[in-house]
Design brief:
Shape: globular
Oligomer: single chain
CATH class of the largest domain: Mainly Beta
CATH topology of the largest domain: Jelly Rolls
Order of helices and strands: HHHEEEEEEHEEHHHEEHHEEH
Distance between the termini: 38 Å
Low-confidence stretches: 1-12
CATH superfamily of the largest domain: Jelly Rolls
Strand order of the largest sheet: 1-8-3-6
């Protein structure tokens, strides 16, 4: 502790900020960790959102950013034909409302709806700008989010072009496992119930098609599904159906 205090008393804060920025840039591919930023700088208590509630609406112009402390949220877009495809799954550690920072008119392109009970922490846009001005390493976390979403979008497009519905379901399960899955021995357990209809909305297939794909995966003892709860029993074999994501 003495050495730490001595270091901080000698090195100017601007130099420490540059050092932290350089360290974060050298690991820009690592997942963003917004928990410290929101936990340290948010001035309001967490909001508790009930399952099924709409948190943000397409067309909103939010003046703040939202951090998902617990629970899961789907981002979806209403189309002119009445369809509402799910674009992205947000869970603990995710930040939503990013267009408040990156769009001139701040207009959201998606709705955000709670899939479970959700706990959210917010920071006003102007406060966030002041924070990253003094702590630029936090800005790299935002870049990390864009990298993750770009990779996800590219993988999803490639999946539609080059794979069948079974592979798309495998891709989605692997993606959720990679981001939110909990390892238990040789198995990976999903912390959120995923109905066949919900998966269908994510992968862009009919519910019946997803049901057939899941039944095949379960028959091959790759997954176990019961009442929406999915457990991956054989990650290596599930990987073999996916050309996009590989996890161990």
């Amino acid at each position: 502790m003495r050495n730490f205090l001595c270091y901080n008393s000698i090195v100017p804060s601007t130099d420490r900020s540059k050092q932290k920025l350089a360290e974060r840039l050298n690991k820009v591919w690592e997942p963003a960790d917004f928990s410290r930023l929101f936990g340290q700088f948010s001035k309001k208590p967490a909001l508790n959102i009930k399952k099924g509630s709409t948190i943000l609406y397409q067309g909103d112009q939010p003046d703040r950013l939202y951090f998902v402390k617990s629970g899961f949220i789907k981002l979806y877009r209403l189309l002119e034909d009445g369809k509402d495809p799910i674009i992205y799954l947000c869970g603990p550690g995710s930040m939503i409302g990013i267009r408040a920072l990156t769009s001139e008119n701040r207009e959201l392109k998606h709705n955000a709806q709670a899939l479970t009970d959700v706990e959210i922490i917010t920071i006003p846009r102007k406060d966030y700008i002041e924070i990253v001005s003094e702590h630029p390493e936090f800005l790299i976390d935002l870049i990390s989010v864009f990298i993750d979403r770009l990779n996800y979008s590219e993988q999803k497009i490639e999946g539609f072009l080059t794979t069948d519905s079974k592979a798309r379901v495998a891709n989605f399960l692997l993606y959720v496992a990679q981001r939110f899955g909990k390892k238990k021995g040789n198995k990976i357990i999903f912390p959120i119930a995923l109905t066949h209809q919900l998966i269908a909305e994510f992968v862009g297939s009919a519910r019946e098609t997803v049901t057939i794909a899941l039944n095949k995966l379960e028959k091959e003892k790759i997954i176990k599904a019961q009442r929406g709860q999915i457990i991956i029993s054989n990650i290596k074999k599930l990987n073999s159906y996916s050309k996009l994501i590989k996890i161990t």
